[in-house]
Amino acid sequence: MLPAKDTYKFQRRGSVFQRDLNRPDTERCAWQGPPLDALYAGISVQYKDSAAAIVAIAIRDTTYLLDFYEHRFNSEPKKRPDEKDVSDLIVDQLRQYSEQHLERFTGLAMPQDVADQCPHLCSRLWRELDIVPIAFIEGVPLFTDSPNDPKKWNARCIDELAEAMSRRCVRFFGPSNNPILDVGFQGLVEVDCASRIRIATLDDYEPTVGHTTWRAVNHYAAELKKRHIKIAFFSATPQGGGVALMRHALVRYARELGIDLKWYVPKPRPGVFRITKTNHNILQGVSAPGERFTKEQQQTIEEWLQENAHRFWLSQGGPLRAPSEGGADLVIVDDPQMPSLIPIAKHIAPDRPVIFRSHIQIRSDLVGTPGTPQHEAWAWMWDRIQHADVFISHPVEAFVPANVPKEKVGYMPATTDWLDGLNKTMRDWDVAAYGRMFNMLCHNNRAPTIDYPDDEYIIQIARFDPSKGIPDVLESYARFHELLKEKGLDNKPPKLLICGHGSIDDPDGNVIYDVTLRHIESKLPHLKDLICVMRIGPSDQILNALLSKAKIALQLSTREGFEVKVSEAIHKDRNLYDRMSMAALTTVSDEVTTVGNALCWLYLAEQLTAHKKIKPKERWINDMAREEAGLPVDNVITLDDSSNILKSQHEDNIKNKGDRYYRSPPNHPIPLPRQPPLGALNPIPLPNLTHNPRRSTTHHTKTRHNHIGRYHRAIQHIRKIFEDRHVSDHDIVADVYMITDLSGFDDGVLPDEDVIAYFERVVRMQAPMESRGGPQDRGAGDVSANDGFGLDYGFAAEDDMLGAVDEGAAGYFVAGVGFDVLALCGFGRHDDKQNSDIECAK
Fold first, then answer.
1. What's the pTM?
2. What DSSP assignment string belongs to 114-149?
3. Which has the closest alpha carbon to 484: 842, 197, 228?
4. Pick from 840, 34, 224: which is nearest to 480 by CA?
5. Which fold has domain 5-180?
């Protein structure tokens, strides 16, 4: 019997001098210094009697084979390794090699049989080491066959196969070390390099949602698989922006479920995306004065979509062909840029269900006014959209034009994926590696660097778009800096970082980017060394790293999309995420996760393809899916139960944490923001709830304590109140909310006056810093030191912000959501120059 041993160890020796020079910064996870070199790996495993016998690891850069490792396992029957032993060995060896040489692995390739024998290896590589794992199937060539390439991998020795895997791995990455995006035949988006990349399994997805959501998804998935249903999504672009992020995640998860779900994009045409972006801006009400969606532009869009449909999607086996001819059973047009596909799909197969999803904030008030650019643009779109069976909207009633039949309208929020590169938890070592990459980009663009941990910084992550509130971010930061200077706290102020991805269908990106830089150069020259404005390439992990270490996260978008970034910011602090409300101790709202999003689409697919009529009548699709499956909503508790739980939790906080988190009055079902110290102010009770007839009657006596779920519903209700009061004379640009104060809005609606009064009292309690011993009295630096939850940064604003709304004025406030992260939103007129007057002091 052979004992376990390393038959060939890594032998490469790098520059010790250079390694020692960089090690101090590396050990403290600093972002200074050169980026780490990228490595690639290949592995192979030789099996004997269904057990791993030998493991080989080959390491290379883009040019050379650098190092090799081989390990022979104990062949004694009772000591044969299981899949965990093999995975542990590979993960440990790669981690040690990376830390020893101060280099990081970008990707690793393996034969498919290794991925099958070690089903958790790929997800561990991704989760623990931030390595992109790729699995190759034997006999399937990567590009073209070589006449000398053995068809059977077992014809190669184990070391040869590991080296071949490492070479294959390199070919999947572009110059920026990101996997190359692949759009295949008929415009099919080959997510994760045609499913070769494996970053998550069903075991990884299950903990991201509650038990009943998981059961509901599997219920509908089983039905769809049994009937071999094909689902086809259509959108304009395969990368960049929220729609693409959601579809990559959905296709990835559907693949794990075994659902036939595909995603198609059109062939781009020069000039088309300038037109579609202009139309997008018109519908949002942020276009240039006098800009319209002309007849010529309408004809250009129509011809573009007709060409793509007939050339690609109506060809043999295309997704728009009739289901009996191999086409999709359900068509989902996931982009307002492509409404012409709806009548095409209906003409080919009249009985096939078609869904249209509107993900933009349509100015329904202007759409309903004849003669406006919005009215003209929507009229063209609605002429095509009206043929759809279901109209899915972002969950705000005002985003849906009045001529859309209410029975067709269903609500579905934007979602994010907790397992992808944008949101997964990374080691500080990996975060620092991406921080160095970011600083290299800053050097290349002559922008200020972020030298974390020496620098603190405030961040807004968003595309460079007219509706992302970037001017407000700059004006707010300038005022913030003035306050620090007045208080003598400007020795080393936090920097401001504005960054985001681009997208090929967003020609405004470069324009807004240039305008932002010119504004800083001309209006804020004294701050130009403190403000970093960067357009980042398609690297989710860089954004992840930047958000993870930010002192403050801002989101000043004046149109749709801001709630996803709020969710992602909250998600970054695990301690906060676990304690910010009673519900967050057990789950985050399933509705904003990939699995929750899949539940909505699988429910619609199962029902509509079974020829069942669906009339949402402005309900949340997630709720309808659970009800149809006969499963209750997770984490539904009575208000009395929540008070008892919070009381117990509050006592534990006092005992263990010195009352650092929050105080929970017995008549308040969910914690308020941090109360002032020394009992300076009394807690504010939540007003009594009234029944909301739009929500299910089975839930109206209970409150679902999922913070994002409450957030969406509260936003919808509060927006409606303010629009009812003010929409006739000015434009509400954002929403007034406090993340931790929304429990009452889920299944009951506060009377309008109670909402106004409640938020006014909350704002009054938090805003005047001098009334609670704020920075003016005790020094701004003491705010976060004295208290650990709620408003980590105090603020001062108008004496009566909500009262000022009634008079047509405007203002912002900062809603604190934790130790380092806060969300900043506002309300008021779109054209009011005072709406960025934020006074924020640390």
1. 0.75
2. HHHHSTTHHHHHHHHH--EEEEE-TT--SSS--TTS
3. 842
4. 840
5. Nucleotidyltransferase; domain 5 (3.30.420)
